[in-house]
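Supplementary Note 3. Input sequence used for the single-chain structure prediction.
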Amino acid sequence: MKATETTILNFVGGLDKVFIIPPFQRNYEWNFEQCDELFEDIIKSYQNKKAHYLGNIVYYVGKNNGAAYNEYILVDGQQRVTTILILLCALRDLAEEKSTADSINRRYLMNDTGDNRFRVRLKQTSYDARSFLSIVDGMPSESENNISKNYYHFIDLVKKSNISPKELYETIPSLEIVDVNLQIHDDLSLVQTVFEKINSTGKSLSPADLIRNYLLLAKSSDEQEQLYRDYWVKIEQMIKNENISRFARDYLIMNIFDDVPKMKIYKMFKEHFEATKAHHIDILKDMYKYALYFAWIKYESCPDEKINEEIKRLNFLKSDDLYPLYLYLFNELYASDTEELLRILGLLCDFIIRYRIVSPAGGGGDLRTVIQQLLENLSSGTIELNYDSVHFELSNSASPSGRYPNDEEFMRVLTDAVNTSYAKILLVKIEEYEKGSVSMPLDKIAIEHIMPQTLSDWWVENFGGREEADRIYETYINCIGNLVPVSRDYNSQNSNKPWKYKSGKLKKVQFAITSEVTDNSEWKEENIKKRNIDIAERACRATVSPLQRTRKYQTKSASSEFVSGLYSVSDITTPMNGAALESVIYDNEIIEVTAWREFFAVICEKAYSVNSKLFDEIVEENKIHKATMVRNYPHKDPVISKDPSHFLTPVAVGDTGYYSEGALSSNRSRMYAKQLLDLYGMTERFQISVS
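The predicted structure, written as discrete structure tokens, is reproduced below.
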């Protein structure tokens, strides 16, 4: 690397220089504010006759140098160089002296070369090339491109300055820069390192910017341009520039089967592909192939109409975490077996419907883990790519927080309360399952509450007065039995009308699952309860249930450091102070527990249900106790008793008549639970999920 202090015009001027803005760079982005700041600096330099530091210009000399020109590939400073040349064009076009205009053209804008590609000193990105060329050629366009807008803005600034174009032109040499020649020879790693640290316009470089640079970086501008033209620009056209960072993340997850934080997309992308030693052209070819599938999924534009309908549903369910899996499935199956692809997408839709509605503890992180493990097993050939294998893997998630909800818990949540967006797609699934098809797209369907969200006086009286109406409302307003699909043009003013009137309107709705409600002559609590169970059962039939689990959930090994996950109850060494308890797993039964003070009581209740006589004996002999004797007990203070006065915070052990101590730390709770389960010989059958 060689750094030299010089002026901007010395850098730009000289014989037969060609400055290349490589295709991996951002388009020209300077706005009026930045142009005004530059112009004010020039005015100050004119007034006080002092130099002004403009910044660094970083470049490397390309491999296309010849007798006619020298190629300089800009790495940093392209925004400033472009702006100076736009200003020079404006000064040229306003100059009264022909000699000034000719000097600007000859020394800083044009090259005297027979190669038409390089007659203009600065070769812009393809997006800006036409606008820039029109200005240099003295025929500025009226486009909304930043180059054209800034040219006309400089024309106005020069006219208002009361300083002649010639005087301003003679002032520009006072703008100083540092000329930084990277002198890469055959090593492009330095260019990449510099680019990663650049922030020319004050905006952080996006993962897409960095990945584009990494993949398109080459020793010659011709090679860069070919990679850009043949692959990158086509990817941008397919999925749009704003989606490239997201696409790169999904593509990377599909390759590494691991989570990729948004802030680490580029870092992990570069590390992975450098480790694999893949050629950049091969990566671009592969990304180009997958970009088509990403576009089909993102924009719901798959040529196969049936598959496209499943994509619409999956997108409606906010299934972004599954995109890496979708990319893999489309690549493997779309050209060879669309029927199997359709079946698997339908299965994933049913899985996500249940997962979103039940919302197992742990959220998206656990869902991503399930999908990444499935991807890894498919990619490695551990399992075959078919519907049955995917169904089996989803049914045997490593963590309960990523589980495929079974019929029992699905019905429990549906009959309690359900998000209306997810209720919509579920009710449509039931209609389709029972009637064969639904012609109306999801975005044209709304959800109507049969018992209205705002109770009129009639509805209050219908439910037996204010107190009863409030109770019924709180219990059933968002249960699945109180919800029906309607078209969006259904008049919402019908909602809180008396049942006879509302029933007549609902009878005309085109959905059978809606019109059937009008078979009820009234809509009271017993009607809601009956329909609630009926629809929940039909929902279980209309969506694919998980298979019976045949694997245990994966337990983490005991360690000196805590990380979220699943631990055996036998592990009492991993510190968990401050950790959130999510559930207890007995074999494959999941018991939701949200507080450590309830944990020991849950373990006691399960132990009692297995062998109540052994439990009575353990309590009677005080086999599990504290080390203290301060609670007025003949022996050591107990942790289980039928007398709640023995405890600081008594917690009922189900309906057993026993209580346990709730004022326990997470470590003490785990220790007493292990002691109890050791006496039963069933410690290894219990796990806890913590985060």
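The longest helix spans residues 338-358. The mean pLDDT is 88.
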